């Protein structure tokens, strides 16, 4: 029976790591999967996380199941990080939430919840969006459409086109928005643009679905949730998928959060049971480890401050690397103006070159990044930036 299924092509993002590992060119550069790297190309365990691991090891007394909702201190800590301490939706007990296996787990169970609410609704995603959004949301059986977001020729957001599209979205449809550090383009909405999105959500009565996987990597922990908090302050309902993979460096521990702002406490209670039953039907209950570490960090003033410092260091390093790449490209006389890289935010930048040029970078120079021209800025270092800039200048 199993032979009826065909071999699939490599994943557009994860497949790059396999190809990179097999490449024997000593000059090869990995700008593919979104993982933070230091100057030496390593992804070290954050110092705050290493300390939390010691505390957990010394105190954990059992490996029995945790509750289906997840680690309580993790959930409350994350909700405060996202919404702000004492946010009215928290005081009014209107937020349902579960710890999920990574941001992907959160996206999937929230999509299943939407399907339970209304299997006919459409989820609108940005064009382009993160490659895995479509399979994650589509596998839950929901229809997906795109709204215009980024103009590769102008290297900027097509906000007027986005607004024109969202003006036609049906009541009850869902609009997926990237909370910050848009993946793959690095192009984020301004504060004014977030206000316009709020106005559209109020007029059209669509439900915003925020995916926030890079809080702290754009402008800062608080600044990066401007849009999320604006919507949570002013809309009756909101759904949020958050990830701790990047800002806590907990990639392999799979730690995320699915949160739903509801209209009142009774709805919250009902939704809480629904989301837990969805999780029970897929993976039963979340792994504890990553959530337990984040709980320890967010609920200790000392460790939280240390972690905030580490997030700032990662953010500032990526901002420095952006400036370095742009100035090298200028110095080398690149025929394209790459200044836009400096205004993009977070871990990714869209180089706005063609898929053929991306292939040429891979084939001729062993520089690996996603076909869309998305590069992981954290993969750049002072030792490879000249090589990258020379290659880009040459292929242009
Ligand atoms: C990425 O976008 O590269 C990361 O979020 C890793 C992934 O799962 O695709």
Question: How is this structure best described in words?
Answer:
With 396 residues, this protein is an alpha/beta fold. The protein has 2 domains: 10-44 and 315-395, Alpha-Beta Complex (Aspartate Aminotransferase, domain 1); 50-299, Aspartate Aminotransferase, domain 2 (3-Layer(aba) Sandwich), CATH 3.40.640.10. The chain has 15 helices and 13 strands. It has helices at residues 14-22, 47-59, 72-83, 88-91, 102-117, 133-138, 159-166, 191-204, 226-234, 265-282, 289-298, 301-331, 340-343, 355-365, 385-395, and strands spanning 29-30, 95-100, 122-127, 143-148, 150-151, 156-157, 174-178, 207-212, 238-243, 256-261, 348-350, 367-368, 374-376. The strands form 4 sheets. Strands 2-10-9-8-7-3-4 form a 7-stranded mixed sheet. The chain has a two-stranded parallel sheet with strand order 1-12. The chain has a two-stranded antiparallel sheet with strand order 5-6. Strand 3, helix 6 and strand 4 (143-148) form a beta-alpha-beta unit. It is globular and about 60 Å long. Bound molecules: (2S)-2-hydroxybutanedioic acid (LMR). Residues 13, 33-34, 130, 132, 183 line the site of (2S)-2-hydroxybutanedioic acid. Belongs to the class-I pyridoxal-phosphate-dependent aminotransferase family. One of its GO terms (molecular function) is transaminase activity. Residues 27-392 form the Aminotransferase class I/classII large domain. It comes from Lacimicrobium alkaliphilum. Its cofactor is pyridoxal 5'-phosphate.
Task: Compile the SSE list and pairings.
Elements (H helix, E strand, L loop, with lengths): L13 H9 L6 E2 L16 H13 L12 H12 L4 H4 L3 E6 L1 H16 L4 E6 L5 H6 L4 E6 L1 E2 L4 E2 L1 H8 L7 E5 L12 H14 L2 E6 L13 H9 L3 E6 L12 E6 L3 H18 L6 H10 L2 H31 L8 H4 L4 E3 L4 H11 L1 E2 L5 E3 L8 H11 L1
Parallel strand pairs: 1-12, 3-4, 3-7, 7-8, 8-9
Antiparallel strand pairs: 2-10, 5-6, 9-10, 11-13
Bound molecules: (2S)-2-hydroxybutanedioic acid.
Subunit structure: Homodimer.
Cofactor: pyridoxal 5'-phosphate
Protein name: Aminotransferase
């Amino acid at each position: 029976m199993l032979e009826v299924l065909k071999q699939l092509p490599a994943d557009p993002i994860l497949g790059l790591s396999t190809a990179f590992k097999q490449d024997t060119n000593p000059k090869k550069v990995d700008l593919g999967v979104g993982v933070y790297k230091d100057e030496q190309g390593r992804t070290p365990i954050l110092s705050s996380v290493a300390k939390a691991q010691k505390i957990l090891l010394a105190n954990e007394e059992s490996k029995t199941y945790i509750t289906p909702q997840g680690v309580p201190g993790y959930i409350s800590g994350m909700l405060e990080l996202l919404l702000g301490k004492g946010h009215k939706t928290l005081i009014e007990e209107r937020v349902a939430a579960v710890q999920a296996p990574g941001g992907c787990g959160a996206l999937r169970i929230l999509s299943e919840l939407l399907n339970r609410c209304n299997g006919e609704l459409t989820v609108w995603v940005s064009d382009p969006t993160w490659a895995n959004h479509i399979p994650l949301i589509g596998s839950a059986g929901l229809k997906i459409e795109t709204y215009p977001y980024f103009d590769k020729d102008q290297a900027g957001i097509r906000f007027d086109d986005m607004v024109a599209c969202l003006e036609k979205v049906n009541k009850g449809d869902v609009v997926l928005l990237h909370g910050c550090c848009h993946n793959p383009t690095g192009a984020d909405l301004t504060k004014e643009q977030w206000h316009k999105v709020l106005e559209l959500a109020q007029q059209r009565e669509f439900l915003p679905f925020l995916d926030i996987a890079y809080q702290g990597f754009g402008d800062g922990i608080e600044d990066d949730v401007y849009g999320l908090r604006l919507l949570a302050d002013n809309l009756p309902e909101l759904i949020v998928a958050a990830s701790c993979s990047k800002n806590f460096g907990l990639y392999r521990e799979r730690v995320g959060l699915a949160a739903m702002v509801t209209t009142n406490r009774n709805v919250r209670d009902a939704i809480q049971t629904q989301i837990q039953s969805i999780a029970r039907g897929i993976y039963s209950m979340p792994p504890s480890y990553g959530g337990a570490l984040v709980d320890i960090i967010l609920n200790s003033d000392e460790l939280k401050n240390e972690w905030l410092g580490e997030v700032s260091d990662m953010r500032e390093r990526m901002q420095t690397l952006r400036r370095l790449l742009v100035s090298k490209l200028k110095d080398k006389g690149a025929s394209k103006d790459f200044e836009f890289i400096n205004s993009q935010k977070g871990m990714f930048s869209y180089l706005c070159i063609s898929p053929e040029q991306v292939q040429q970078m891979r084939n001729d120079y062993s520089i690996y990044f996603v076909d869309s021209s998305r590069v992981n800025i954290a993969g750049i270092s002072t030792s490879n930036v000249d090589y990258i800039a020379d290659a880009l200048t040459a292929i242009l």
